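Name: Carbohydrate ABC transporter substrate-binding protein
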Amino acid sequence: MQKHDNKSKRTKFKLTTLAASLLLASGTLSAQEEDARAIAERLVDEHFQNSTLSREEQIEELMWFAKAAEPFRDMDIQTVAEGLTTHVYESEVLAEAFSELTGINLTHNIIGEGDVVDTMQNQMQSGNSIYDGFVNDTDSIGTHIRYGTTINLSEAMENEWADYTLPTLDLDDFIGLQYGTGPDGSIYQLPTQQFANLYWFRHDWFTDPDLMAQFKEIYGYELGVPTNWTAYEDIAKFFTEDVGEIDGTKIYGHMDYGRRDPSLGWRFHDSWLSMAGMGSQGVPFGNPVDDWGIRVNEDSQPVGASVSRGGATNSPASVFAMQKAVDWLRDYAPEEAQGMTFGEAGPVPAQGHIAQQIFWYTAFTADMTDPSVAVTDDEGNPLWRMAPSPTGPYWEEGMKVGYQDVGAWTFFDSTPEDRRTAAWLFAQFTVAKTTSLEKLMHGLTPIRESDIFSEQMTEMAPKLGGLVEFYRSPNESNWTPTGTNVPDYPRMAPLWWQNLAPVMSGEVTPQEGLDKLAADLDSTMNRLARANVFDSYAPVLNEEQDPQVWLDQEGAPKAKLDNEMPQGTTVPYDEMMEAWMAAGTRQE
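Structure predicted for Carbohydrate ABC transporter substrate-binding protein:
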């Protein structure tokens, strides 16, 4: 499902029949309804003044929650999410508001991302109900469609949740619904936050006439937003070696991290290989070969990650991508970056000595816009911008361009139905049009197109360095999470950092590390299939054969290019943004 296909279907928000029925024909309300309306009015005025709905529409939406929650009043419900700013807002503001409005004692727990995955895996395998609802990344969609324990939201909304699904939920308005959708078209996960990885650069340096002239003299083309990896490397070398320092401060043309740590896995399975062009064409993920290098057959069954089985995890494109990761970290990033984790490296560009970063999460936007940091001017305007990341030499038109993280509400059949339904009401509360825009303005992780095109975001846009413009273009849909080819994300994701950390430290070559990774992915899929743990879409591995048989065929895996570093190409930022926005059409 693509969000832009649904624009024509959208209609203006109207009072729902259920919400309207709360108003008695005489124009008076029962005492309980009066209480609910008073709470709803106060919540809107105190917490949710920013919304794409009118105040009265917000109040009616909140009164629907109060009415629908009556069977669950006084229940204690526990939900869980990782510690992003957005989820902290859900925990501290939305959970309290929901509890007051509905009488459900809702606790939205904040724990580490790894702990969320471990607890979810425990609940799926044990059948014990640990939490009543999870916010789990849609990277695990391949897991959820296969184990038969995740609630099919599409079916639930038509059946047991028919009376408990917000009539104004407006699924067509969600920008990332396709990422929590299975091959059968059913929704398994409902997005509650979303952010992308993009290219980040110092706009003030890139537009400095002296630096522009110096770059042109040395490299023979214009300093601008790089559109391929050759230009990114040239710019990294330029700022690190040719410029060296600005205003007496040592500067670097690249930033990354390389410590042996689970977060190193995110660095690579979050689409690094596909940015180089390793996989197949297709969005939201390559078909038949995805951004992990896993090939599936026509029935969505994984058949292998190794080139010898038709996969691409250890293909020439992947080797090229890993070699560049090693070289750039060593040659153009601060020396201490090699010992950093994701969390430690994230704030570094805000310190003012980094020229560009090819792979930067927009979740750091709020940190980059703080007036106290070195990369904003005296008025608090960003000296930096974000733009589409450059693509590698194996990339082809029609492939995904980068990664998006989509945290989404996920429920399991091990949770008693009444508790699960109460948690479903809270999940909808966190994404309802009454609350979603205010949440976006706090966490900058959009989920609704109506919010992205709101007047409030138009007003905020100049301070956000390109975030709003990114999400207003349909090209945004080319940045996608891990897809359905990965059959067991919790078990398979750790294989990335375990095998690629030795590559980053120089203990093994990129080819050796990727060969081991591909073999481990295949071994894990084969073992799980033999254990008969999957309810559907189980792996059926291809027999191994000479890798050249696959490399000689069309598409992924792709044979090694004669020239992996063609002429560098750049585009001026303003020109790039003009083309970017021209691709989009403002929603009606």
